[in-house]
Amino acid sequence: MAPLTWDQVGERTYETGVDRGVLYPIDSDTGEYTGGVAWNGLTTVTESPAGAEASAQYADNIKYLNLVSAETFGATIEAFTYPDEFAEMDGTALPEPGVAFGQQGRKVFGLSYRTRKGNDIDGTDHGYKLHLVYGCLAAPSEKAYGTINDSPEAIAFSWEVSTTPTPVAAAGLKPTALVVVDSTVVSAASLTALEDALYGGGSETVARLPLPDEVLTLITPGP
User: Which of 21, 26, 56 is nearest to 38 (CA)?
Assistant: First the structure.
């Protein structure tokens, strides 16, 4: 076996950026995420998994085992703006055009976004990852409106998002709220099929968020 080596040319990879955000309302009758709309002005998505904490159990005067709590997934979305369709997810009703009523019920939604994958040869054009998030629920967030001055800044909106995992039928896999697809690993054809679904291209009539089991049927290994 060859000895280990570090920092070889082409292997110095990193991740950066966020773009191509898409909001997917959920159909309460079918449970499908469809009618996706572009989310312009997306600046940051912070993924925040939680749980999976070890709880030590003792017996016979020794540490007998560790029990691990369930893992959850949350996120923080930051943006300069948001789609009109997000109003219902943010607890806002629009009874008349241009009139918004706050403190209303909040609807579940899906989200997808892309992050760049770079290396020392191709830079940020090396590839990207598609992040698919299911069962999202946005919590109320503050909006700080400040005076215009000699150093103006656009207001940055922010939402804390919790999730409910989606069932996965594939053997050995637990329900999940997050699926990530790496363009440098999967085949070009399967990546195109997935992106056609996410963004409404090819034979797809509307942008939609495929459920995890369908993602598995669309994706095959590269090149």
Answer: 21
